[in-house]
Amino acid sequence: MVYNPNKIEKRWQRIWEKSGIYQASDKVKGKNNFYNLVMFPYPSGDLHIGHWYNFAPADVYARFKKMRGLNVMSPIGFDAFGLPAENAAIKRHIHPKTWTYKNIARMRSQLKSMGNSYDWSREIITCDPEYYKWTQWMFLQFYKNSLAHRAKVPANWCPSCKTVLANEQVVDGKCERCDSQVIQKEIEQWLFKISDYAEALLEDLDNLDWPSATKLMQKNWIGKSEGWEIKFKIKNYKLEIPVFTTRADTLFGCTYLVVAPEHPIIINNKSRITNYKFVEQYINESKKKTERERISEIEEKTGVELKGIKAINPVNGREIPIFAANYVLMHYGAGAIMAVPAHDQRDFEFAKKYNLPIKMVICPNYPKTICPILDRAFENEGFLVDSGKFTGMPSNTARERVGEWLQKDEVAEKKVYYRLKDWLISRQRYWGAPIPMIFCEKCSWQPVREKDLPVLLPNIKDYLPTGEGKSPLAKSKKFMNVVCPKCKGPAQRETDTMDTFICSSWYFLRYADPCNEKKFASAQKLQTWLPVNMYIGGAEHSVMHLLYARFFVKALKKMGQLNFSEPFLSLRHQGIILGPDGQKMSKSRGNVVDPDEQVKKYGADAVRIYLCFMGPYNQGGPWNPNGLVGISRFLNKVWQLCRSQPSTSSRKADFYKLERLLHQTIKKVTDDIDNLRFNTAISALMILVNELHNQSENTSRSIKTLLLLLAPFAPHLAEELWLKIGEKKSIHGQKWPVYDSKLVEEEKIQFIIQINGKVRDKIETAADISEAEAKTLVLASEKIKPWLQGKEIKKTIFVQGKLINLVI
RNA sequence: GGGCGAGUGGUGGAAUGGCAGACACGAUGGAUUCAAAAUCCAUUGAGCGCAAGCUCAUGAGAGUUCGACUCUCUCCUCGCCCACCA
Prior knowledge:
Layout: H1 5-19, E1 33-38, H2 49-67, E2 71-73, E3 77-78, H3 83-92, H4 96-112, E4 124-125, H5 129-144, E5 148-158, E6 163-165, E7 170-171, E8 174-175, E9 183-192, H6 198-203, H7 212-222, E10 224-234, E11 240-245, E12 256-259, H8 264-267, H9 276-287, H10 291-296, E13 303-312, E14 319-325, E15 336-339, H11 345-354, E16 362-363, E17 383-384, H12 395-407, E18 412-418, E19 423-424, E20 426-427, E21 437-440, E22 444-447, H13 477-480, E23 481-483, E24 490-493, E25 497-498, H14 500-503, H15 507-510, H16 523-529, E26 532-536, H17 544-558, E27 568-572, E28 576-578, H18 595-602, H19 604-613, E29 620-622, H20 627-643, H21 655-674, H22 678-694, H23 700-710, H24 715-724, H25 741-744, E30 748-755, E31 758-766, H26 771-780, H27 785-788, E32 795-799, E33 803-807
Parallel strand pairs: 1-2, 1-26, 3-4, 12-14, 26-27, 28-29, 30-33
Antiparallel strand pairs: 5-6, 5-9, 7-8, 9-19, 10-11, 10-13, 10-18, 12-15, 13-14, 16-17, 20-25, 21-22, 21-24, 23-24, 30-31, 32-33
The protein binds one RNA strand of 86 nucleotides through helix 7, strand 11, helix 10, strand 15 and helix 11.
């Protein structure tokens, strides 16, 4: 009988679903529970090979953990709100909801064809009212705990479409749809105070079992910088400009100040700035640019002097000019800097352009005072020169001393700034969870009462954004006009919806208790499953999603809703699968691999194993169209092995050799899956199969072990053969085989003899040979004799069980 | 500009201080077949040699070491992330 994957796979998928063998029990207590999570997909239409690469090996891991005796939960769901649904709706005239649910239905059946051990009874869809009710509830908790607030925030604004644009809708500073110049417009929006948690988010990174690169990315994103805030007085006025610096040691070299174009010192002193008209013009120019552009423009720095006002350098009383320039950002630090052109490259470039004095105050050669001639800023450490009483001090010490000295006069203050900005969560979009807030003229903003949740997303027909920068929901009077929860007077709903990252910031909590109508999840079930033991997904979520989810958990813990402070104990990223041409897969390149086609041709088991086998899991790589052939052969061999007795081979089974290989394979596969090294686990299984294939006698025990080891990788084939060899119960409920560490060790080894580090002979010896014995063998070797002829052995290195190296 | 990661046969990769190229793909030759597919066997880094064997070889160059794909430094190339963060 021939191995026909398509026949057996569908059948087993049906049987497993009916029997519910992958449903995780909530009742198991203690440490035996294992929460294995993959990043839930966005229902974009089709399951692509990237999804497979994330989900299939993750399922191997889950199945392995289950066979190791753990009570494993592997849930799946859909991250269903988002902009692409709206775009598809506009393009194809389908309602976002219709489009989304149609995609979900399709992807669900594709997911099932993978043969993963998902507990489908826990499926969640974030655009279901039963789910977003709790997303809205989350918002209310954040609001009640002062973690949600309103502020004017610049948004991408297309003046021609009169609409707010998402970052990805801005192409080259122009509107994606009408090609007109996008400007920055300030709009009042809701923000989450993630910055309150900057320090906690940074500190707790240390304890996580995450890829170090991911931790580092989060660290840089949070961007803690410690320094001093220094107040510069304005000459003749009772005004001051605080600046933030991490290099207080360079203060004596400060030759001018720079403020951001939006800095209040400008607007508040229109009459004092003698060239205000000119300054205003510059500010308007810079407003046209998005911050992203302002930053990414590598073009020259520009600026304008604020004439009529001068600042005073507190360390030496010198008068210095003040500039407004595009290279200083309002939202970071104090929105103003002290410019030290000799020791900061940006200031250096600016000073060169506007012919400002460059004063060297850090010199690497002290006490020789020959300072290098600068063709760029000297940003390294050195010794202070020309710096009053600090002259001669190492710059890293002076950094604190100068600050402390000024602190006595309350001119300086120690400060910590974070790059992390508050999280803007308002979206002027239709396809998202409505923000549960109501605005009343009398009572201002009022939260929707919890018992009135969910605020249902109305089924409106026109989901194009409005002309005033409001969400399409503003068009529905029925939705908007409500009574104020406080005074019962007429009021209006918030019409913005929430950023979809909010939906995905807590979904892993809901899986623990997906049908609960009274709470987002019961304390007891959270206790059972959370935090997540293993989280597997793409590295593209290194900052946004993974940081937001951490923030949510920390905030919820503080509110008393959770009793743990990190959501994901272990995290791993899969690599990216490239097209056969080594390029990123894309429809326009025509190098997209359709997993459905591959499954049809080779079966889901083969595709799963190919993905495991192609290389290190976190590395990804190009799809090799021929690679599946080898896997297919391998699975066929397994099939033949179990279905018929080989008669062609003449080799007799060497019992001990086979036994040893079997135990070595168990060890290798066990260790490898545990460390997500799927590729080498498969190679070990191939070696075992090749060996069994060459034997004329198979012990049924080695076949059983092989099938057990193969079960996580090829669940359908293993299940089929398991029952065919006479077993009664599903292989996926069986215990993982154990190895005997004595049997793993080789009795005899290839002992290496090196002369000067080069291999000159190999001899078969006992594994525990001593140095003296080894030496005797070496001297007896015919191959070695000529090498030692007339030479003196200067040194001998002996490595137990491995080699001996003679240095001559 | 900064950070991180990678670079090994014709290809994907294995080996993380101790036999470089496991396992697989592809290729070549053979067996089987009327023929093909499938399957099986053999060979397969380069060079020299009839052979035993020797030499070279893990992006380039240096260093540490008895011994380096592996550790350190410099440089080159590619990929990803961040990017005027004071």
